[in-house]
Design brief:
By secondary structure, the protein is of the alpha+beta class. Helices cover 43% and strands 22% of the residues. It has a four-stranded mixed beta sheet with strand order 2-6-5-4. The chain has a three-stranded antiparallel beta sheet with strand order 1-3-7. α4 packs across α5. The longest helix is centred in the first third of the chain and has 37 residues.
């Protein structure tokens, strides 16, 4: 027959098991609650952007708190507002474009994770290839210019992915004059915002 110590240990074990089960139930409840909160408030993926431009245009942007939409037919990420993710890249570009009359603007882009596509990622590359294939199947006009085709596909993505607010990709800084399998050209990462709605912070860095 079990002695007093055995009975005590048995009751203690039952209490410990009961406490463990309650703790597990509470943990599951907290996890469910956290998941519900995450669904109601998707995780933000704020992006810092640097916009190179001229001094005159920078002053107008600061005054109006508004960027003009780039709407050419050779925009690498389609229609939108362009930024670099790195300050030095924006500075380099603006100096080449505007010589001594350059400026760089710092911005904060507020978006959620599901509102942007990074074409440098494996998922982003698959999305791009999928849309490129759809673009071709739809019989949409194609051009002799690589840049025009690039712009057309990106605008096709903008038109069909209405919830996407930012498209992002890295591009080489120099033309590919001699094609090889290995591309060692330096690249700059840039992104394009659909419109001004996602731009929440704006500061002039360089005059």
């Amino acid at each position: 027959m079990p002695n007093n110590l055995d009975r005590y240990m048995s009751r203690l074990n039952e209490r410990l098991m009961s406490c463990a089960q309650r703790a597990l139930d509470e943990m599951n409840y907290l996890l469910d609650d956290m998941n519900n909160i995450a669904e109601q408030h998707p995780e933000r993926e704020d992006i810092t952007g640097y916009h190179g431009t001229s001094k005159d245009i920078a002053s107008k942007i600061i005054e109006k708190k508004y960027f003009m939409i780039s709407n050419g037919d050779k925009e690498w990420l389609g229609r939108g507002i362009y930024f670099y993710t790195n300050y030095e890249d924006a500075l380099e570009w603006s100096k080449l474009k505007y010589d001594t009359a350059f400026s760089v603007l710092h911005t904060i882009i507020e978006i959620n994770q599901e509102e942007f596509i990074d074409f440098d990622t494996e998922e982003g590359k698959e999305i791009f290839e999928c849309f490129k294939s759809l673009f071709n199947k739809h019989g949409i006009e194609q051009y002799d210019s690589v840049q025009k085709n690039q712009c057309a596909v990106m605008n096709f993505i903008w038109e069909h992915e209405i919830n996407i607010k930012v498209l992002m990709c890295s591009f080489a800084t120099k033309p590919n004059v001699f094609r090889t399998l290995i591309d060692g050209r330096r690249k700059r990462k840039e992104f394009c915002a659909r419109n001004n709605d996602v731009i929440k912070g704006l500061t002039l860095i360089k005059e």
